[in-house]
Amino acid sequence: MSVKDITIIGGGPAGLYAAFYAGMRDLDVRIVETQKTLGGKINFYPEKLVWDVGGIPATTGANLIDQMVEQGRAFNPEVILDQKISRFEKTADSLFASESESGNRFLSKRIIVATGGGIFNPKKLPLQYDVKFEEKNLHYNIYRLNAFKGKKIVIVGGGNTAVDWANNLVEIADEVHLVHRNDKFKAHEFNYRKLIESAVTVHTHSLVSEIIPDQTGSFITSIKIRNDQTDEDTILDLDELVVNIGFDNDLNFHHDPALNFQLKDDYYIEGSAKAQTAVEGVYAIGDILEFDGKVRLIAGAYNDAANAVNQIKQSLDPSADEKAKVSSHNEVFDEKNKEMKERYYL
Ligand SMILES: Cc1cc2nc3c(=O)[nH]c(=O)nc-3n(C[C@H](O)[C@H](O)[C@H](O)COP(=O)(O)OP(=O)(O)OC[C@H]3O[C@@H](n4cnc5c(N)ncnc54)[C@H](O)[C@@H]3O)c2cc1C
Questions:
Q1: Reaction catalysed (predicted)?
Q2: pLDDT score of 202
Q3: 124-245, what's its fold?
Q4: From the CB of 43, is ligand 1 less than 6 Å away?
Q5: Is 42 in the pocket of ligand 1 (CB under 6 A)?
Q6: Has residue 74 got a pLDDT over 90?
Q7: 85 marked as part of a ligand binding site
Q8: Cα distance between residue 101 and residue 86, in whole Å
């Protein structure tokens, strides 16, 4: 395993932008992300329109992820997915060794913690089913609403996301059913009112008791739900089954006493506005960082990332400039600009 200048823990907006900016400063980086995909929390709202990222007019979360990933990979960082960093320590030769839960060890000169809101995994339906349905018509997230156009959809859940999906999908789908275990919806008032007035068929006090596949067992054709007040069973035929019944939050390494981070609200890592934490050589950026004036938005994450990378550059090379040269006049883009000019000027 090669020694990188920086190991970035977390591949959300902050980590991806740090990888890009580090490339601009000729630093060699590795991103380690616990999920199977990059993009961080934006994966919670891929179908939503995001308006407040500077310079980008309204675009969907999914498009934003695509663009962030393209930018984050511009200087070919090493990207390691599906590996949760569970601890890190300083080695005798003043490097940092980050260890993943699966036992891999990554060496680097500095660390950037870009772990954001933490590790969230959607709660799965508490029933036995073939996991391959998750690649067919069982969804724990909605990336593009249009993929559901004209279809018969059953949504399971009673939180704001489930209700919001029902409200959005009913406008384009053939039929939408919402199945919830009780009659208390944890949705914003506005969304709940919209639901009640919509054409969504709501099944309260109902739990999914069976998933029914087609004859070849390759996708789901219907589910059986049971009303726990009447004990009545109902079969709902469907094209797509969408589930949002909450998230499991995995514990992170921030609490490791050996690391000695200063935490706010027992979670956020306190640091300077330039992203330096209480641990020398370790920087925190994005939502995980806490300082007076912190902006917990994508725009704020970019600012932290540039600060952290600039600090690292100077700590590794005291003769380096304080900041990167602006990208519009930076020779590191000479080669890449040839390709881009074809894309934009021709
Ligand atoms: C519903 C919702 C809507 C939002 N809408 C907007 C909006 O419109 N505009 C806006 O600017 N902001 C919005 N935000 C906030 C924005 O998403 C965050 O500010 C941004 O995602 C923070 O980026 P981040 O990289 O710091 O953290 P995250 O996006 O949380 O990414 C952190 C990454 O680190 C990974 N990770 C965590 N721990 C480990 C570990 N131990 N090992 C390896 N990987 C790890 C996680 O899996 C995750 O991928 C919204 C947030 C939510 C929840």
A1: 2 reduced [2Fe-2S]-[ferredoxin] + NADP(+) + H(+) = 2 oxidized [2Fe-2S]-[ferredoxin] + NADPH
A2: 97
A3: FAD/NAD(P)-binding domain (3.50.50)
A4: no
A5: yes
A6: yes
A7: yes
A8: 6
